[in-house]
Specification:
- This protein is of the alpha+beta class and 221 residues long.
- The protein is 31% helix and 33% strand.
- It has a nine-stranded antiparallel β-sheet with strand order 1-2-3-4-5-6-7-8-9, sandwiched between helices.
- The chain starts with a helix and ends in a 7-residue tail after the last strand.
């Protein structure tokens, strides 16, 4: 708990410095003579998890004037509780624990009839990595019922997933139109977030749908 209190204090002080001086996290750290990598390590991230592309995403976030590090006041340890790097002006958000980091980019558009969502996520843990791209179209009429339980059908769902571990790389792709429930898709995403690649594939492969397109190059671990 003492380590967690120190992390919370450091994050709070740096955030306040940014607010008080109206500067970015990057500028605040530069003024203190601390690199971004140093700072991430100080607040508990295993920097060995950082690939070049993820580090670039974090560096870009740190340069934005409204980016802040967010930590729950009830956080007890970094094994189970996440720290978040977030900016209202960016579509990218970073979450991390001691040995796991995820980068999520989310966009949402809509017209009179439909909502269009696209999500790109990379998750790293130890020597494993999962990347997925998700495109979803929602008919606004379907949102009028079961919006709390999210048991409403998606007009269109396409997901492309790649799993990597050392020299292994596997992938799958599914498109399901009209029949997939949002609540079932949420479960698939939870599986992928926990590196359950095979389980996610099995559910999508068996999922009952009148219109389902399976990628030609689907590969199982």
């Amino acid at each position: 708990m003492e380590e967690v209190r120190k992390i919370k204090t450091i994050i709070s002080r740096i955030n306040r410095k940014c607010d008080k001086e109206s500067i970015s996290l990057s500028d605040a750290l530069n003024n203190l003579g601390i690199t971004i990598l140093n700072y991430l390590e100080i607040i508990g991230l295993d920097i060995n998890l950082l690939s070049d592309d993820i580090l670039k995403e974090i560096e870009d976030l740190f340069m934005l004037p409204d980016t802040r590090i967010v930590v729950s006041g009830s956080m007890e340890d970094l094994e189970n509780d996440e720290i978040e790097i977030v900016s209202k002006s960016s579509k990218t958000t970073v979450h991390f624990k001691t040995n796991k980091i995820s980068v999520n980019s989310f966009t949402r558009k809509e017209d009179e009839e439909f909502i269009y969502e696209e999500e790109n996520t990379s998750i790293l843990k130890n020597k494993e990595k999962i990347k997925y791209t998700l495109q979803v179209t929602i008919n606004k009429i379907d949102l009028k019922t079961r919006i709390i339980s999210e048991k409403y059908p998606l007009s269109h769902m396409n997901i492309k997933v790649t799993y990597m571990k050392e020299n292994i790389s596997k992938n799958f792709e599914f498109t399901i139109n009209h029949d997939m429930l949002k609540s079932d898709l949420n479960y698939i995403i939870r599986l992928l977030s926990n590196f359950k690649f095979v389980e996610a594939f099995a559910i999508l492969n068996r999922y009952p749908a009148s219109i389902k397109i399976i990628g030609k190059n689907n590969e199982l671990v």
